[in-house]
Amino acid sequence: MKVYLFICLLAACATFLYTPIVRHVAIRVGAVGEVRARDVHTVPTPRMGGVGMLCGFLTAMFFASRLNFLQGVFRDNHQAYIVMAGAALICLLGVCDDIWDLDWMLKLAGQLLISVFVAWGGLQIITLPIGSLVTASPTISIAITALLIVVSINAVNFVDGLDGLAAGIVAIGGVAFGIYSYILARSAPSYASMATLVDVAMVGICLGFLLHNWHPAKLFMGDSGSMLLGYLITCASIIMTGRIDPATVNASIYLPAFMPILLPILVLFLPVLDMMMAICRRLSKGQSPMHPDRMHLHHRMLRIGHSVRGAVLILWGWAALIAFGSLMLLFFRPIHVLVVFLAAAIALAVATMYPTIRRRMNGEAEEPPEERDADRSEHARGGGWYRARHMRDIASPSDPESSSTAGERRGSRRND
Q1: Which of 18, 45, 79, 388 has the largest CB neighbor count within 10 A?
Q2: Residue 412 banded pLDDT, cuts 50, 70, 90
C-alpha cells in the first residue's frame, strides 16, 4: 500500500509542476480562443492540460518500473508499455483537437484506431466473470475492448464542462476502483497489480491537475485531458476485469460475482448517464449526437441556481455515493448499505434542489433562463477583476499575438 501511495503522490507532484509549463505552451501555440454562447467560462482560458497530466502519468510509471515491488508487472508482460503508448496517442489526438478543433467524425475515427491498436497490442477483455467464465474469440475481444474504450473516452469528454468536474469525478471513481483492485491483488501470491498501478497514477494526476483547474481555473484539461482520463480508467478496468477467474477469488471478498463488471460501470455512471441523455436528446431533435448544447447535467445545475463550485461539489457527491456505495457491498451487509445509500441520496437530492426549494419557500418568481444564464456566467468568473487579470495573462506583451488574434485562430470550447 505504501508503494501505491508513493506513486500517487509522485504523479500528483509531477503533474502539478508540469502544468504551468503546459499552460505557457498552450498560449504560445494558440490553444486559447473566444468564448462561445454555450460556454460557462467568460474569459479566454488556455487548454491542453492533458499534456501535463500525461507527463505526470509517464513520470510515475517510469519510477514505478524501477521499484522492486512493481518490477514484476513490467517484466511479466508488455501491458504497461501498451497502456503508455495508447495514452500518448490519445493525448496527441486531444492536443490536435484543442488546437485545430477537429471534426467530430475525424476525432471519433482517431479514437477507434487507437483503441483497436491498444486491444490488438494485448489489452483485451478475454473473459467475462459472470458466474462462470465466458471466453470470447480474439476478434470479438478486440471489438468489445475497443468499443468500451471509445465509450468511456467520450463519456468523460461529455462531462468535462465545469472547472474541476471531470478530474474530480474520475479521481473519486479511481479511488473506489483502486481499493477494489488492491483487495483482489491481496488474494494473489504477489500484491503487485498493474491495474492498481495504473489506477493510483491516474488518481495522482487528477489531484495534481485539480490544484490548477479548481474554479476559477487557470487551465482547462481540454480534450487531451478528458480523453486521457477516460482511456486510463478503462485500461485499469480491463486489466483487472478481463482476466479474473471467480473460482480463484475468496468468496468473502468476491461478494457479488458480477462486481468486476458492475464496479467499472458505476465508477463512470454519471459521465455515461450524461452522455446517453445528450445522445437521446439530440437524436430526438434530429440533430447529430455530437451537436453541442447547454443541457448537460452541469448546465442544469447552474440553471437552477447553483454556483460553479457548488454544482461541482454536489456532482462529486453523487459520483462518490454511487462508486463507494457499490464498494461497500464488499464489507457490509446489503441491507445496511441500502439504508445508508438511501439516506445519503436523500441528502444529496435536497442539496441538488435547494435553490429551487428556497425560491419557492420565499415566494420568488422563477428567473427567465436566458437572464439567469447570463448572470450565472458573469458570477462564475468573479466579475471584471478576474476578466482583466486573465486577459493580461493571455495577451501579455511578451506574447506575439493578442488574445483576440488567438480567438480568431481557434474557438475556445468546453467539451461536450
Answers
A1: 45
A2: very low
